[in-house]
Amino acid sequence: MTRIPAIASLFVVCIIGAVPEDTIRADQQELVDRFNRHRRQARRRPNGFVPSRVINYHFADDISDSSKELFMKAASAWEKDTCIKFKFDSEAVDNILVRDDVRKSCLFKRSRTGKGNQTMYVGCRFFGGVAHELGHALWLDHTHKRHDRDDYLNVNWDNVKQQFDFVSRNFTEIRLERYREQYKKLTKLQNENYDVPYDYGSIMHYGSTGQYPPMTPKDKRYHRTMGSALISFTDLVVVNKHYNCDDICNSDTSARCARNGFPNPNNCSTCVCPGGYGGQLCEEKVRAKGWR
């Protein structure tokens, strides 16, 4: 099993390369099948609000070049298949200050109003942790907090407490109630899923490892594959819908994507495809290397 970075105590990732390829293919096909069922349902938008597609940021004076590079790599990964653009602008009113502090590990701190200056720490120094926190910057909450998560997960609150006791040895500023919030289910009023099926492999999903895991999947096949260090197809779908990116590719010349793929808002003639499929229109099966 690939060695898990120190941040794993807060965001546990499972390296898909350690999972048998036939298991990955089966998981990907099942996700496509679930999309077929869910996309027949009506889509809802929260109060018609669409946030800005431009995310302003600037770097702290003492941040290292390697941390800058890591942030830009994670930002580019989100930009690649969405209409989101990260813009360096230290003068913008809404701005993310990117800091490098190993004591904070990887963390995104939003202001009380959700507007104005935010702070993001990239101290964990690995791609999955930084991309996860950028997901929060894009208004994504944890997948395992979805209002329908009880259909897919069991949460063991005693184990959450045990994990907190372990984590708090190194992060003394963390409090139990705040830690429990990371596993608290959201309500339907708080949580808009855009009828996207539940994805154990989302980058916004915590993993489940150790002798006393806080969460266990009801489908035991996913016990070793919950969470990911990579942005998943469903993560991209949710962001594109939340920011109305699909409005960009609504002409007759836009790609007609198979397998529930969608036109890439950066190039409407090509498709963003679910894991296991590729080609310009998602018509080709590709060798599985894990979730996107």
Automatic annotation (TrEMBL):
<keyword id="KW-0645">Protease</keyword>
<keyword id="KW-0482">Metalloprotease</keyword>
<dbReference type="GO" id="GO:0006508">
    <property type="term" value="P:proteolysis"/>
</dbReference>
<feature type="active site">
    <location>
        <position position="133"/>
    </location>
</feature>
<dbReference type="InterPro" id="IPR006026">
    <property type="entry name" value="Peptidase_Metallo"/>
</dbReference>
<protein>
    <recommendedName>
        <fullName>Metalloendopeptidase</fullName>
        <ecNumber>3.4.24.-</ecNumber>
    </recommendedName>
</protein>
<dbReference type="InterPro" id="IPR024079">
    <property type="entry name" value="MetalloPept_cat_dom_sf"/>
</dbReference>
<dbReference type="InterPro" id="IPR001506">
    <property type="entry name" value="Peptidase_M12A"/>
</dbReference>
<feature type="binding site">
    <location>
        <position position="142"/>
    </location>
    <ligand>
        <name>Zn(2+)</name>
    </ligand>
</feature>
<keyword id="KW-0862">Zinc</keyword>
<keyword id="KW-0479">Metal-binding</keyword>
<feature type="binding site">
    <location>
        <position position="132"/>
    </location>
    <ligand>
        <name>Zn(2+)</name>
    </ligand>
</feature>
<dbReference type="GO" id="GO:0008270">
    <property type="term" value="F:zinc ion binding"/>
</dbReference>
<feature type="binding site">
    <location>
        <position position="136"/>
    </location>
    <ligand>
        <name>Zn(2+)</name>
    </ligand>
</feature>
<feature type="domain" description="Peptidase M12A">
    <location>
        <begin position="36"/>
        <end position="246"/>
    </location>
</feature>
<dbReference type="GO" id="GO:0004222">
    <property type="term" value="F:metalloendopeptidase activity"/>
</dbReference>
<keyword id="KW-1015">Disulfide bond</keyword>
<keyword id="KW-0732">Signal</keyword>
<feature type="signal peptide">
    <location>
        <begin position="1"/>
        <end position="20"/>
    </location>
</feature>
<keyword id="KW-0378">Hydrolase</keyword>
<dbReference type="Pfam" id="PF01400">
    <property type="entry name" value="Astacin"/>
</dbReference>
